[in-house]
Design goal:
Chain A is α/β, with parallel strands linked by helices. Chain A contains 5 helices and 12 strands. In chain A, strands 1, 2, 3, 4, 5, 6, 7 and 12 form an 8-stranded mixed sheet that branches. A 4-stranded antiparallel sheet of chain A has the order 8-11-10-9, with no helix packed on it. The chains are: A alpha/beta (224), B alpha+beta (162).
């Protein structure tokens, strides 16, 4: 729910990083915080436990500057990943404009990924939002680890695609980042769509900005 | 069910809101009043300029209010319509406005909680009328001018790297 304030000429958009515990959501934000010029970002706020697990959320405002007379700003949030923090997780989704799902690529974390994805869908539905209608990208983090599951397997499990009923959206759309793959395609007479995906190693920053760029562009397109 | 919808604040409504907030400060003796939407975005600020980061303040306010809403439900209440945080010198009083925005009033010992509460109660009613009619009439989602998306994409590439 982006807010356009014509009086102060500001646009604020809310992006939420979602995913299983210890998957790298906070690490994504920390990297953005370190790399974006201090003039273009605000203070990073972390409501965390003593062991640095996110208790409520992390928050980082990033300023895009003035575009066509409007100060344009993204508010980046993470949610706590641990299963038992669901109440706080749900609150952060209120008014979300775009979602990044940070999946943990380690094969042992597959169940946790599936559970978090289902939880995202359910929590959005409780707010009356539909994940398939929101700007949404998937990030497969920790690609450098030896126990990382193959991408095809992660895609099949976490981002297999959803049916597209709207005729206007039923148009073959290649995935620009992955030759030979599609974001919208037809199979057995049915159209499907899936979220763009990115590989990442959030600790070193690999893929962090690609992911952020992708989701923020989709969000701004939805305003245009 | 759909994606989240945008909302916008026009200059006329903003002017009216500031007028209402200024009235509240005058009558209550409070230092500053802020309006924050439920998603954590600052909508308006009137009175003494804050010495803190208003963006961070707004996101924490929304989280504070949302968390307390959930606590209220656990107690069998629909909501806590207002919250009070007391400090040694500075205090804040928060009140829900039409389930859309949160009114935050910052005050010190030059006034009293009782007076602030009393004046906030009246102000909440007036603000609720403004927001209710604004959301009722604003059925069309706001659209940005032509060229906005293209320019925004260039800025994203510049800021986040090609």
């Amino acid at each position: 729910m982006s807010m356009i304030n014509y009086a102060s000429r500001e646009i604020n958009c809310k992006l939420v990083y979602y995913g299983p515990g210890l998957g790298g959501k906070t690490t994504n934000l920390e990297y953005v915080y370190q790399k974006v010029a201090p003039t273009s970002r605000g203070k990073m706020i972390s409501l965390a436990t003593e062991t640095e697990r996110t208790l409520f959320f992390d928050f980082l405002p990033v300023d895009l500057g003035t575009i066509r007379g409007f100060k344009t700003r993204f508010h980046l949030y993470t949610v706590p990943g641990q299963v038992y923090y669901n109440a706080s997780r749900k609150l952060i989704l209120k008014g979300v404009d775009g979602v990044v799902f940070v999946a943990d690529s380690q094969i042992e974390r597959m169940e946790a990924n599936i559970e978090a994805m289902q939880n995202l869908y359910d929590n959005l539905a409780e707010h009356g939002y539909d994940l398939t209608r929101l700007p949404f990208v998937v990030q497969y983090n920790k690609r450098d680890l030896p126990n990382a599951a193959p991408l095809a397997e992660l895609q099949q499990t976490l981002n297999p695609g959803w049916p597209v009923e709207e005729a206007a959206r039923q148009r073959l759309s290649p995935d620009p980042l992955h030759p030979g793959e599609f974001l919208v395609w037809q199979a057995d007479g049915q159209w499907f769509e899936r979220a763009p995906y990115y590989e990442a190693v959030a600790l070193t920053g690999e893929g962090v900005f690609d992911t952020l760029k992708a989701v923020s562009k989709i969000v701004l397109k939805s305003l245009g | 069910m759909s994606g989240a919808s945008s909302w916008s604040l026009g200059e006329r409504e903003a002017h009216r809101i500031h007028e209402i907030l200024r009235g509240l400060l005058r009558e209550s003796g409070a230092r500053s009043a802020l309006l924050v939407d439920r998603a954590g975005q600052l909508v308006a600020q009137t009175g003494e300029a804050p010495t803190f980061d208003p963006t961070a303040f707004a996101s924490l306010t929304a989280a504070d209010f949302s968390a307390n809403d959930q606590l209220a439900r656990m107690l069998g209440e629909q909501e806590f319509g207002a919250l009070f945080h007391q400090g040694e010198r500075e205090s804040m009083y928060l009140a829900d406005v039409a389930r859309r925005v949160i009114l935050v009033v910052l005050f010190d010992n030059r006034t009293t909680l009782g007076l602030v509460k009393l004046r906030v109660r009246g102000t909440v009613g007036t603000l609720a009328e403004v927001f209710t009619s604004m959301f009722a009439s604003g059925a069309e989602p706001p659209r940005m001018a032509d060229g906005f998306v293209g320019e925004a994409e260039d800025e994203i590439d510049r800021l986040f790297g090609k």
